[in-house]
Design goal:
Elements lengths: L2 E6 L3 H10 L6 E6 L3 H9 L5 E2 L3 H5 L4 E4 L3 H11 L8 E4 L4 H11 L5 E6 L26 E5 L6 H13 L3 E4 L2 H27 L4 H4 L5 H6 L1 H5 L3 H9 L2 H23 L3 H24 L16 H9 L4 H8 L1
Parallel strand pairs: 1-2, 1-4, 2-3, 4-5, 5-6, 7-8
Antiparallel strand pairs: 6-7
């Protein structure tokens, strides 16, 4: 028995998922769709999908699972468009860092017995310093050895959750169950806000009269911190993420304002020793995060930081439901 997994959006995340699933050619049919036909062609050439389809509705009608690896502003219209084309029993998965909004859209548009589960991918630290984007930045090991946030929804039954749990493991990651509210808070702080901080910095500096001369001296520090402005979320996607995480955005903005005011006072008071201690403490926290991020110790504390092992054949059996039990259970719900 072969299942079809349709990937909508063939950028880094979608194409990397396709590459990881390519290890199981006899069991999984990878269908890809991207609104940019040239991207679809590149993905097919890279063998990240088995075939691509131009028509959005046709690409999902036979899918057992649909992975929405789309920019935030494209999720709602796409979900609305494909809702009536998705077959009964299918699982819809998204990778957008705003789960409350997507869960609400899924509830609004999906017919009964179509199950939504959210994912928050975490990248292999091996690729964190790679600033390429799109399908060119796709790697089959992009999620290897990481955790992946798994967010349930009100319409997801146990079989759908089991399906996505096994799907995550086939990508090489470990599922980390988290609520939608918590996930939005975490992703706003660690994913969305760094983009906004970069925008704020570039805006404040380039708006000053001295920028015409200052730009000639801007070097590595400015290039690194401003990177998300050009190569991160698009303006449309970032605006959508901020609006639908406005409560969390307000919190992290207020936190930053508090820190900047405190720093300003320390600097104006010329408290050099206190400032040095503060900068060292922050540097230590960042360095500690990087070490822990590379080690991935939070995957399985009982195993001393080692990734939990699994047998792909047994996972595939549960994922695919060779004996038909998965299909029967989904139909009985």
């Amino acid at each position: 028995m072969t299942i079809q997994i349709t990937i909508l959006g063939l950028g880094q995340i979608g194409a990397s998922a396709g590459l990881a699933l390519g290890k199981y050619p006899d069991k999984i049919l990878r269908v890809g769709h991207d609104k940019d036909h040239s991207v679809s062609q590149k993905t097919k050439k890279k063998q990240a999908v088995d075939k691509t389809m131009l028509n959005l509705s046709n690409s999902v009608k036979d899918a057992d699972a649909v992975l929405l690896a789309l920019p935030a502003h494209e999720v709602r219209p796409t979900l609305e468009h494909i809702a009536q084309d998705i077959k009964e029993g299918a699982v819809i998965i998204d990778t957008v860092p705003m789960k409350r909004a997507v869960a609400a859209w899924a509830e609004e548009f999906l017919p009964p017995q179509r199950y939504y589960v959210g994912l928050s991918p975490v990248l292999n630290p091996k690729y964190l310093r790679n600033f390429d984007s799109g399908v060119e930045a796709a790697h089959k090991g992009l999620f290897e050895g990481t955790i992946m946030g798994l967010v349930s929804s009100s319409n997801a039954n146990s079989q759908a959750l089991d399906f996505v749990t096994n799907f995550v493991k086939l990508l090489g990651a470990e599922p980390y169950f988290v609520g939608a509210v918590e996930s939005d808070g975490l992703m706003t702080a660690t994913h969305i806000f760094p983009h906004l901080a970069a925008v704020s910095l570039v805006s404040s500096i380039t708006a000053r009269p001295g920028w015409r001369e200052a730009q000639k001296f801007a070097s590595r520090a400015f290039a690194q911190v401003s990177e998300p402005v050009s190569f991160g979320e698009s303006p449309e996607a970032l605006a959508k993420l901020l609006v639908h995480n406005s409560d969390n955005a307000e919190r992290v903005i207020d936190d930053l304002i508090y820190v900047l005011r405190d720093l300003k006072k320390t600097i104006l008071d010329k408290e050099e020793e206190a400032l040095q201690e503060y900068l060292q403490e922050v540097a230590q926290k960042r360095n500690r995060w990087w070490v822990d991020r590379e080690d991935g110790k939070w995957l399985d504390p009982q195993a001393g930081g080692e990734k939990t092992t699994f047998e792909a054949p047994s996972l595939l059996k549960r994922l695919l439901g060779f004996d038909g039990s998965r299909r029967r259970r989904l139909e009985e719900d």
